[in-house]
Write a structure and sequence with these properties.
Layout lengths: L13 H19 L5 H8 L3 H8 L7 H11 L3 H9 L1
Helix pairs in contact: 1-5, 2-3
């Protein structure tokens, strides 16, 4: 049986919040690099194709090496990237 919305807000766990920020970062990078999809984004960042999906779904962490590649590709400083993740 389908459950109806009762007007209450769903709890947002820390994991969901962090995942949303990583998605926001990847979407910003995708727009900056004019990539139409995650496959193009992976090629632009020199990531293996499944890495973008694994980052979006929090299967693998956003490592310092990945942050460095994002910084090099976009021209953003690591501080700018951290601001996107904190916002």
């Amino acid at each position: 049986m389908q459950q109806l919305y009762n007007g209450e807000f769903y709890k947002c766990t820390e994991e969901k919040r962090v995942s949303a920020k990583i998605n926001e970062l990847l979407n910003s990078v995708q727009m900056k690099l004019h990539c139409g999809n995650d496959a193009q984004l992976a090629r632009a960042l020199n990531f293996a194709p499944p890495e973008i999906s694994k980052l979006r779904h929090r299967v693998i962490p956003l490592s310092a090496a990945k942050l460095a590649r994002i910084s090099e590709a976009t021209g953003w400083s690591v501080y700018q990237i951290r601001d996107i993740l904190k916002a």
